[in-house]
Write a structure and sequence with these properties.
This protein is α/β, with parallel strands linked by helices and about 375 residues long. About 35% of the residues lie in helices and about 20% in strands. The protein folds into 2 domains: about 10-125 and about 300-360, Periplasmic binding protein-like II (D-Maltodextrin-Binding Protein, domain 2); about 130-275, D-Maltodextrin-Binding Protein, domain 2 (3-Layer(aba) Sandwich), CATH 3.40.190.10. Strands 1, 2, 3, 4, 6, 7, 8, 9 and 12 form a 9-stranded mixed beta sheet that branches. The chain has a 3-stranded mixed beta sheet with strand order 5-10-11. Belongs to the PstS family.
């Protein structure tokens, strides 16, 4: 596990809440083992399941929270993909679910009918979906929505294709065959990726659409979860795939710069993800997508949502859910950790709104 807690300059520009809004402690190091502020010791065992997109961050947050903040709270987060996470949440086999696609009205109705009370959903972090390859010479290769769509449709089959060459006049492109790699499981990362292409490329919207699972073109390689796609990239010469930025970072993969709405080729950095997230107007129901990103923003970006219920928990588990996610959202070291892994924490105003929504967990009991 990572133990570094170095401050990132870019995070200094993001206002932090002065204190946690629940029992999760202050914005200090939380190392007193008393909920971060000398408060109540909690005891609970929680299970969550869903997206692999935020899994590197969630695992480190869980480790740090259990080690330094609430030793009595055990959290088992299963990285099974967004589709399975939503399914397990609706089946009530986990305490909380996780996905890069919010629950729509059909899902919310199903949740209420099954549980007998309404579900709660809220975003917890922003992240980038990058186009990655196992060839350092291609780091910074410029692509746009049209070329990415043509690659995954089988129209572009080599890195020196004229469409790619036109975007990269100063690069000596290899003639290597491109092997596109995609998620083979129900995936929020696929949703973010396909939503971006559907928004930007009309024929992609008509042919493939958007969703957690797609009917892909023939000849592509599939991989389970983000790490499976990363493996597919490294194990196939010419491999190209879409993964969360943190997985590309961990695997040492080269990544493309993507042309955004203003025609700017943008490298997937933390700053660029923050810039993209700042363009979003988040409604009261927290159902939103990150579209038409311009300026210095990276255009293939999304959020991760957490799902809980307003009833049905033992109070100890409800307290632990609220405490953990309040700490993860507001504690300075937790927010720094998100930045170190390439995820963008929520801004101050949105964090306040999210914590208020989170506190509805078990409120109908």
């Amino acid at each position: 596990m990572r133990n570094g807690r170095s401050k990132l300059a870019v995070l200094a520009a993001i206002p932090l809440l002065a204190t946690a809004c629940g029992g999760g402690g202050d914005t200090g190091d939380g190392a007193d083992g008393n909920g971060g502020d000398g408060g109540e010791q909690l005891s609970a065992s929680l299970t969550g399941a869903g997206a692999s997109f935020p899994d590197p961050l969630f695992q480190d947050l869980i480790y740090t929270y259990n080690s330094d903040v609430q030793p009595g709270v055990q959290i088992n987060y299963q990285s099974v993909g967004s589709g399975a996470g939503v399914e397990q949440f609706l089946e009530q086999t986990v305490d909380f679910g996780s996905s890069e696609e919010y629950l729509d009205e059909e899902d919310l109705t199903a949740a209420e009918e099954a549980r007998g009370c309404v579900a709660v959903q809220f975003p917890v972090v922003f992240g980038a979906v990058v186009i990655a390859f196992d060839n350092e010479d291609l780091n910074g290769l410029v692509l746009d929505a049209e070329t990415i769509a043509q690659i995954y449709d089988g129209q572009i089959t080599s890195f020196d294709d004229p469409a790619i060459a036109e975007l990269n006049p100063d690069l000596d492109l290899p003639s290597d065959e491109i092997i596109p790699v995609h998620r083979s499981d129900g995936s929020g990362t696929t949703y973010v990726f396909s939503h971006y292409l559907s928004t930007e490329v009309d024929w992609w919207a008509d042919e493939y659409g958007e969703g957690k699972e797609l009917d892909w073109a023939d000849g592509l390689v599939g991989g389970q979860q983000n790490d499976g796609v990363a493996q597919g990239i490294t194990q196939n010469p010419g491999g190209l795939g879409y993964v969360n930025q943190s997985f590309a970072q961990e695997a040492g993969l080269a990544v493309a710069s993507i042309v955004n709405e203003d025609g700017n080729p943008i490298e997937p950095t933390l700053e660029a993800t923050i810039a993209a997230s700042e363009e979003v107007e988040v409604p009261d129901n927290f159902q939103f997508a990150i579209d038409n990103v311009g300026g210095e923003g990276y255009p293939i970006a999304g959020s991760n949502w957490i799902f809980t219920y307003t009833c049905g928990y033992d109070q100890a588990n409800a307290d632990a859910i609220i405490d953990f996610w309040t700490w993860a959202l507001t504690d300075e070291s937790a927010r720094d950790l998100a930045g170190e892994l390439g995820y963008a924490p929520l801004g101050e105003g949105l964090t306040e709104r999210v914590v208020a929504e989170l506190e509805k967990t078990n409120s109908a009991n």
